[in-house]
Amino acid sequence: MKKSALTAALSIGIMSIGLAFATPQQAVAQLKQNSTQVLNILQNAKNNNDVQVRRQAENYAIPYFDFTRMTELAVGANWRNATPAQKTALTEQFKTLLIRTYSGTMLQYRNANVVIRENAVQRGNSIIVTADITPAGGKPVTMDYTMYQSGGKYRVYNVAVEGASLVTVYRSQFNNTIAQKGIDGLIQELRSKNGS
């Protein structure tokens, strides 16, 4: 779960891409620019304004994530059995879980060194951009952002740390809950974790 926390915290803190006509090279260039901007936001934290700075970084990055697609991948085959209302509830609760659980650690990476690799990979409609992130005084971590173009920008739908996929980690947990309690049981479990 430690890798999951790192995955989500860094992905929410760093990822934000907006492109009109995208190529892998443009995605790399834009990710470099946006990661610098988010790190600049985080560096404004001075303990008394940590919550405000963190929210500013979240608000900058969150629109560039496709939480519906992330939830669909995390739920797996059971997604097809969910009603539209259940899909909406699952997406909202999963989004809340990711943000609440991991955004608090975002400020730990405000002095990180981020190197975006030039060799992005295109697979069908998706582009995978790799970043090497080294927290101050820490060991480098390799992250792969999988994204697709939507409405003139790229939206992330999966993040992997050292090859461990965020949605795959949650899929195992979600499938166990659905097998025991059904889709509504998973929604309720997520609501309980989110305090709603």
TrEMBL record:
Keyword Signal: yes
Keywords: Signal
Signal peptide residue numbers: 1-22
Entries under Pfam families matching the protein: MlaC
Domain of life, per lineage: Bacteria
Protein name per Swiss-Prot or TrEMBL: Transporter
Organism, as annotated: Eikenella corrodens CC92I
